[in-house]
Design brief:
This protein is mainly alpha-helical. It contains six helices and three strands; from the N terminus they run βααβαβααα. Helices cover 54% and strands 9% of the residues. Helix 5 runs parallel beside helix 6. 22% of the residues are buried. Strands 1-2-3 form a three-stranded parallel sheet.
Length: 118
């Protein structure tokens, strides 16, 4: 995957699916972000994955589904400085919030009080 220009995470722009795009995060998102290549999210600006990833800089976000915007995005994700910036941010996000160790600590913190209450 590291030879790819990007891994694409598409999200529907259809109004009838808006409730899903605003709430759902793809189960493969963390794997894409951790893949070692740029993750490109093509989604409405109010999509859950945009809200999660945009502030971190860990993915290239495209909120305009036009051919011109998508073509421009592909050109930009091929630029070494942009790729480096995104990949460094992705690495930080994976280590801080998406790693199995981080998630294990979250589950542990949630379950320990339940086991102590018994």
């Amino acid at each position: 995957m590291r030879a790819y220009d990007a891994v694409l995470l598409p999200v529907s722009f259809e109004d009838k699916l808006r409730n899903l795009s605003q709430l759902n995060v793809a189960t493969k998102m963390s794997e894409c972000v951790a893949s070692g290549t740029v993750t490109m999210v093509v989604a409405p600006a109010d999509a859950a994955m945009v809200n999660l990833l945009e502030p971190t800089g860990a993915a290239y976000i495209v909120c305009d589904p036009t051919t011109a915007a998508l073509s421009d995005a592909v050109t930009k994700v091929r630029q070494p400085l942009i790729r480096q910036r995104i990949l460094m941010a992705a690495q930080r996000l994976v280590a801080a919030q998406l790693s199995t160790a981080h998630m294990r600590s979250k589950w542990h913190a949630a379950l320990v009080p339940l086991t102590l209450a018994k």
